[in-house]
Amino acid sequence: MSRILEILAPAINLIPEVEKPIKKILPFRSRAMWTAIVILIYLVASQIPLFGVVSNAGADPFYWLRVILASNRGTIMELGISPTVTAGMVMQLLVGAQILNIDQNDPVQRSLYEGSQKLLGLIIAFFEAVAYVWSGMYGDIEKVGYGNALLIVLQLTFAGIIVILLDDLLSKGHGLGNSAISVFIAINICETIIWKSFSPITYPIPGFEKEQYEGAILNLFHSLFAIDNKFVALQNAFYRSHLPNLASLISTALIFIVVVYFQGFKVDIALKNDRVRGAIQSYPIKLFYTSNMPIILQSALISNLYFFSQILYRNFNGNFIVGLLGKWSIPEAGGSHMVPVGGLVYYLSPPHGMIEVISDPLHTILYVVFILTTCALFSKTWIQVSGSSVKDVAKQLKEQGMGLVGSRDSGLKSHLKRYIPIAATFGGLCIGALSVVADFIGVIGSGTGILLAVNIVYGYFEQFKREKEQGTLTF
């Protein structure tokens, strides 16, 4: 075990944690209840405004990150899952690079590893909170006051502790799924879809006398009653450009169905159990072998590039090098975020609708190549640092006493090598392609968000089905 974790042990022991349940598997009703409580706490926290904020106006510099970080601007959930996710990725990279040597079968080492991840998440939450306040996101530091600035930092840090504890609650087996992080992402995205479908807020639309509802479904009925020409009413409901429309809603449902269909693509490898004579079971290798990780890493990369480009453009918008990196503007129709209109970030951003896809082919080609390449590379790299490579899987199966049917131990590794690298690379490519298609056809939210939500929800469906087959779905 790494000496670093032993040194951190006293500090790790001070971090609160959730005890494991007494029973190995709790009744389904109990787990569903705790999951509902976790979701309720997250939704409430996402609506509680930060105390001490002077100004929250202007373009949101973290708009592009909020989908994958399940955060809500101006609330105590401002940081979202960012500290926890960042801490988890850093720890996995340290283990994958063998800087930290952890034996996951040793309960003491595993406990120290999990505790150090929580400690790192808490430290990241604190420094992110300080950076947010110092950058002027909540108003000029002199207007906010040092007392209120300290209160904002404490609120955000405390919210980080709450997220860590909620994640610990589900990962220890008290709730459904393995992590609250996935629940928060899915809830945030699903909430956006529902809001964009039924939002009662009205906005003025050019060419129409009356204001229109933001919600696509609500606007359909309103248009049919308020507009005499029913053809114009349907055209507006399906294709209006400044607000969510029915075409976007149908596209979202279509992508949902396609992703679920691709989830069924897998290769089953027949394995024998050396400890139980005649026992044979299958080991599935899915097309989406690395699940959501390629698109999450790619989104985090491009979102951070957007963020730094915006900051540079605001302060040095006349600089030639800064202009090459990216030029930004706020849409004429208004909005809480800036959009790229030139430079590198423009060509790495998704085209807005099929008209822009056709009218600017260079933008389209560069964007598609960038997404597909980065997703494939991230997916292939992730299996090396996350313990899911051919070598790691073969070692895990061997420790469990599993072997390839009709072959010796050496045959298992070579057999896995035929499928895992291809599934990782091609699966990442497919994830990127689906994200591109989703952005092109104009889904609600973003292609990345829809893919994340579908994969997470489908994972819960698989867990429900698996527990039902194993007879552990007790109420």
From TrEMBL:
Transcription in keyword set: no
Listed GO CC annotations: membrane
Keywords on record: Membrane, Transmembrane, Transmembrane helix
InterPro entries listed in its UniProt record: SecY/SEC61-alpha, SecY_dom_sf, Translocon_Sec61/SecY_plug_dom
Annotated ranges, domain Translocon Sec61/SecY plug: 40-74
Protein origin, superkingdom: Eukaryota
Membrane spanning stretches: 32-59, 79-99, 119-138, 144-166, 178-198, 246-265, 286-308, 364-383, 419-437, 443-461
One BP term from GO: protein transport
Family: Belongs to the SecY/SEC61-alpha family.
NCBIfam families in UniProt: 3a0501s007, PRK08568.1-5
Protein name: Protein transporter Sec61 alpha subunit
The species this protein was found in: Tetrahymena thermophila (strain SB210)
